[in-house]
């Protein structure tokens, strides 16, 4: 996979805003995002809760309508008519975080997995398609699960049923929102291995939304770090997670158990998306600016008043940070000291 390969999914200048209450300013949940995902590529979208990850993911599937920008799939702009979205959702499927909440407790596993086929008018052998999807999701022999109900399954088995329900339509893209967050540690590795195997066997592309940098390390080809509605650092996963350039990425990595040095404790909560700060949106919490390193690099004023440009959607390493760009010849650091970390 190279940057010359046309993206399967491409996002240009995406904005999603929600009306504020009682005349308040709109909440800019996604505030200018470019992102490409190529066939067979797994991209991890990481960041704190509330940074806009899930809203971005849902807008890519047509579940949330953007207020600006464009989503293109396989070279064609995503149309918003009911018929166009129905056709698109055969090719792009959502895997939700909580399998217990996304499975109808009154339906058998067979009916849950077959639902997509019935909605889209599958012309072939329904039973064979359901069995194949369950088998690919690791539930074998599949017939053993046909008449079971969700409450009769383990957490890992329920998540496999959710994945089977997505696979039954033979999609080209999976959008997985925190796919293992609700699972026991012993099961997480199995589900991640399944997603990797599906990429290898079926050529599936995937966007994996997560707050877990260790998960990103283990599964992704590329990572995009999101903060307050915008991607602030992106690139190959090993490059970003072993030599982070943005202070926010450095702070996220510094609190991992295997990280060297002292963890970076960010002050305060992420700002309200209705009142995004001027300049770099991270500057009000930035440890580099607070510690004087940005001043010494001559970029403190830019941090406070100049908004870094939106990063392009390509696969090269990029960072939206005045300080990082000013010191491109210096080693990346967790706190400015050249430390790197390999997430476990």
From TrEMBL:
Keyword field contains Transport: yes
Keywords: ATP-binding, Nucleotide-binding, Transport
Matches recorded under Pfam families: ABC_tran, oligo_HPY
Residue ranges annotated for the ABC transporter domain, each copy included: 9-253
Domain of life of the source: Bacteria
KW Nucleotide-binding (keyword) present: yes
SUPFAM superfamilies referenced in this protein's UniProt entry, alphabetically: P-loop containing nucleoside triphosphate hydrolases (SSF52540)
UniProt GO molecular function: ATP binding
InterPro entries for the chain: AAA+_ATPase (IPR003593), ABC_transp_ATP-bind (IPR050319), ABC_transporter-like_ATP-bd (IPR003439), ABC_transporter-like_CS (IPR017871), Oligopep_ABC_C (IPR013563), P-loop_NTPase (IPR027417)
PANTHER family: D,D-DIPEPTIDE TRANSPORT ATP-BINDING PROTEIN DDPF-RELATED, TRANSPORT ATP-BINDING PROTEIN
Similarity comment: family membership: Belongs to the ABC transporter superfamily.
Protein name as catalogued: ABC transporter ATP-binding protein
Organism: Streptomyces parvulus
């Amino acid at each position: 996979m190279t940057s010359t390969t046309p993206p399967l999914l491409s996002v240009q200048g995406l904005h999603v805003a929600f009306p504020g209450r009682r005349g308040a300013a709109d909440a800019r949940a996604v505030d200018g995002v470019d992102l490409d995902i190529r066939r067979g590529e797994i991209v991890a979208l990481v960041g704190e809760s509330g940074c806009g990850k899930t809203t971005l993911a849902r807008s890519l599937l047509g579940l949330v309508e953007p207020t600006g920008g464009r989503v293109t799939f396989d070279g064609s702009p995503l149309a918003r008519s009911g018929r166009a979205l129905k056709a698109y959702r055969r090719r792009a499927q959502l895997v939700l975080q909580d399998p217990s909440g996304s499975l109808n407790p009154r339906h058998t596993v067979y009916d849950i997995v077959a639902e997509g086929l019935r909605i889209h008018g599958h012309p072939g052998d329904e039973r064979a398609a359901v069995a194949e999807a369950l088998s690919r999701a690791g539930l074998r022999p599949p017939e053993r699960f046909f008449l079971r109900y969700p409450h009769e399954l383990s957490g890992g088995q329920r998540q496999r049923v959710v994945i089977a329900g997505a696979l039954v339509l033979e999609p080209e893209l999976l959008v997985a929102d925190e796919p293992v967050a609700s699972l026991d540690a012993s099961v997480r590795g199995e589900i991640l291995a399944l997603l990797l195997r599906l990429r290898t066997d079926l050529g599936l592309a995937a966007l994996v939304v997560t707050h877990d940098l260790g998960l990103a390390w283990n599964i992704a080809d590329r990572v995009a770090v999101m903060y307050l509605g915008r991607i602030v650092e992106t690139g190959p996963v090993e490059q970003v997670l072993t030599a982070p350039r943005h202070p926010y990425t450095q702070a996220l990595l510094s609190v991992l158990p295997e990280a060297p040095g002292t963890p970076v404790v960010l002050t305060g909560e992420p700002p309200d998306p209705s009142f995004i700060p001027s300049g770099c949106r991270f500057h009000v919490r930035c440890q580099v600016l607070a510690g004087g390193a940005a001043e010494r690099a001559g970029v403190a004023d830019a941090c406070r008043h100049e908004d870094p440009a939106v990063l392009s959607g390509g696969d090269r390493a990029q960072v939206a940070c005045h300080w990082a760009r000013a010191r491109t010849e210096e080693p990346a650091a967790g706190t400015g000291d050249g430390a790197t970390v390999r997430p476990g």
